[in-house]
Model the fold of this input.
Amino acid sequence: MKNLVVLLVITLTAISSHAQTMQITGTVSDSNSPLPGVNVLVKGTTIGTQTDFDGNYQITASKGDILVFNYIGFKTKEVKVIDSFVINVTLQEDIQALEEVVVVGYATQQKRSMTHSISSISSESIRSITQQNLVRQLQGKAAGVSITNTANLSKKQRLTLKGLVGQKENREPLYIVDGTPIAQNNNPIIEKINPNEIEKKNSYKPGRAQRMFGSIAKNGCIVITTKKGNYQIENDESYAKINENKFEQVLLSPLSTFSIDVDKASYSNIRRMLNNGQTVKPGAVKIEEMINYFDYEYTQPKTYHPFAIHTEVAKTPWNNTTKLVRIGLQGKTYTNTELPPSNLTFLIDVSGSMNSPKKLPLLKNAFKLLVNQLRKKDKVAIVVYAGAAGVVLKPTSGADKETILAALDNLEAGGSTAGGEGIELAYHIARKNFKRSGNNRVILATDGDFNVGASSDDAMEDLIEEKRKSGVFLSVLGFGMGNYKDSKLEILADKGNGNHAYIDTMQEAQKVFGKEFGGTLHTIAKDVKIQIEFNPAKVQSYRLIGYENRMLAAEDFVDDTKDAGELGSGHKVTALYEIIPIGIENNYTDNHIDLKYAEKKNKTAFSEELLTVKFRYKKPSGDKSIEIVNVVENLENDMSTDFTFASAVALFGMHLRNSNYTNNSGLDDVIELAEKARGVDSNGYRSEFIRLVKTYHNSL
Done:
């Protein structure tokens, strides 16, 4: 009997112990979207995991355990396991940690120092003030907030730019509204917020504010909480107008000519808008850049040409009376060790408009990813510009990473934006240190808000066209929101023989400077043009999806003086044509024009050909183009996985742009296509796309 009791106690204890262990699942997100790569750890143990690309995690823990959630740029959060098997967590952005994270090789170091000293003004006090200017409202009511006195400066060594001595010191405080830091150029908008819309306003002394929020708050900080929350500034972003390509009749226009585009800025910019719950401007939707953001399994070139050509024909997923043609280019991939020596000049915007955590602090951390991949034979110089331009780092070997990183760390924002002067100086240094047979490149990082000197689109275009003759290429990186000038940055990249990316997160920086490092820096072919000749015996009409800003005249194809796009190491380019076969009735080309003298007889010699693709390119240092011809047969096959996904992205872009050619399809069709073509998705980009489409769909 005694043994039976002992056995029963042991059994009940085991059952109780087992019952305390549970499988916890959940999602980790910020205020807008899921967070991938968050470290989830059972406190005091070695048990841990990371969230996947959709922010989901799964971990084994016991009742009473503490789960620790840690992520770069966000405040660490601890949650006690009680009874729930599902624990969803929202992390708050840590502005100071985001600014002071230091990337060393493949590891990170973080520095945090939080000291609070707050003066609070209640909503009742705010409402009693009749003045519109919030800064004046706070004068004398909150210690340390005064824009007439010199604010406390950072103890870090600061870089003084040539030409900036004697310039008026920037004394404006940092505004944070509903948890979002406001770019300094938008301060006048915040100062005019209706006091009746404010729930609470806190002011911080300059010294305390700088320790809490970093150097961007060196002049003090005003934190505002509105009654409605999620305050959005009416932004001043600019985009070039896009006129959607229409169906062209083959008998009237048998040739379609365009420049390739390896830029991917549009997709990451749209992602930022959707994650922030913003309306996507039609001009921001460049379907070719959305498609080219994703990776496709194109094979490497097997000839002496620097890229391989891939074509595919299938039925259009959203219109069973038309066909879709995919034309893909795969640039030859070089490893880091195979790349020639680099002569890089970082041209960094440190003007007042960059005074935001998602701008200059993110920019500095992004560039550290690039610096950590440089070799001894590479050299880097750093030019910055605000009201004037100056050199803060002379050409330095990639082996001296400590010096380069220190120069980046010491950059601070303030002043107007003399972009033209900065470009002049950067190209001068790049040309002075030119490496023959090397990679000579200026890397411009900015929000594009140039407002001093040459700043109009036409003026910047003329300046860059002149500078590209030097043999120095240009890469343009866009940062920030609210005043992002996409139209200007696109012109700079196009005319500067370069590429354009938009960096909204450190994950995107890792994609640009990590995964696609070679393509970002090393050009393998320039002035790449594509010309399609459609067979009128097989094709009635055609439409190029996207590339509206890259269209060329037919005669430009053989004109070697006409500029076109560049192809970098490992770059992939995809173009989609929707075609209407002969004999198919349609609503897109009703006004058919009969020609009296044009040749109408079908040429039997080409009866099986659908179209002919011609490519022209120049070697990076060449002036004469080389032509490749590729014939596409009139054979329709089932869509490959990559083709299906590319068509899903194209269809989503068409819906965002309110296209006339969606043929009554819906966002459900986009989701179905994308989910069917998710594939291996080792980096999670396709899963993220599906989540974005669903989020947008649910918001309508």
Observations:
- Residues 8-19, 95-168 have pLDDT under 50 and may be disordered.
